[in-house]
Write a structure and sequence with these properties.
about 200 residues, alpha/beta, Rossmann fold, 2 domains, 5-stranded parallel sheet, about 50% helix
Length: about 200
């Protein structure tokens, strides 16, 4: 069974693509959601985050203070790299455990791992292949501004932390275009055929 990464720039629509795969019976590991869960529930990771950012890293109720951490890492690349260096290995280990727990009754030729910074984090090395979801930059900005009720400047700032689309597309094994003009379902069917052994 292949492990296929799914990535794409912010606003590209990778979650939508994964929902379509899921509707066809494919199992999806949502790396970004799991990372957030682990930062709130895994004792070793919580301890490492406290060591890095101090007691203020967590609120009185024991949950991660995302605003506090975000205020630090989005203005300091070194601190962001340090945070990633402890979160990504924990998420990678969690993914391996998730794969091991997939029942033998699962008959699909692959599972999918959705991650925003699959290439940037090096997590793509855990995958047998990678699908990127592409959308033009202007469209991605519009989507995120509307989705997150945020500013263009804030979206551009987040985009600057990710690799450019051309670089992801160059390294990917398969690219799905989500620009509102190319039907997604037919591209996903093509991807399934591409990754299914003859």
């Amino acid at each position: 069974m292949l492990k296929i990464g799914v990535t794409g720039g912010i606003g590209s629509g990778k979650s939508l693509v994964c929902k379509i795969f899921a509707s066809l019976g494919y199992k999806i590991y949502e790396a970004d959601h799991r990372a957030k869960w682990l930062m709130n529930h895994q004792p070793e990771l919580i301890e490492a985050i406290r060591d890095l950012f101090g007691e203020k890293a967590y609120l009185d109720d024991g949950t991660l203070d995302r605003a506090y951490i975000g205020g630090i890492v989005f203005n300091d690349q070194t601190q962001l790299a340090r945070l990633n260096s402890i979160v990504h290995p924990a998420t990678g280990k969690d993914f391996d455990q998730w794969v091991e727990q997939i029942p033998p009754s699962y008959q699909k030729p692959f599972v999918l791992k959705e991650a925003a910074i699959l290439f940037e984090s090096g997590a793509y090395r855990q995958s047998d292949a990678v699908i990127t979801v592409y959308a033009p930059k202007k469209l991605r900005i519009e989507r995120v501004v509307n989705r997150d009720n945020t500013t263009v400047e804030a979206v551009l700032n987040r985009m600057d932390k990710q690799w450019p689309e051309w670089k992801k597309n160059q390294l990917a094994d398969f690219t799905i275009i989500n620009d509102g003009l190319h039907p997604l379902t037919s591209q996903i069917v093509s991807a399934i055929q591409f990754f299914t052994p003859a």
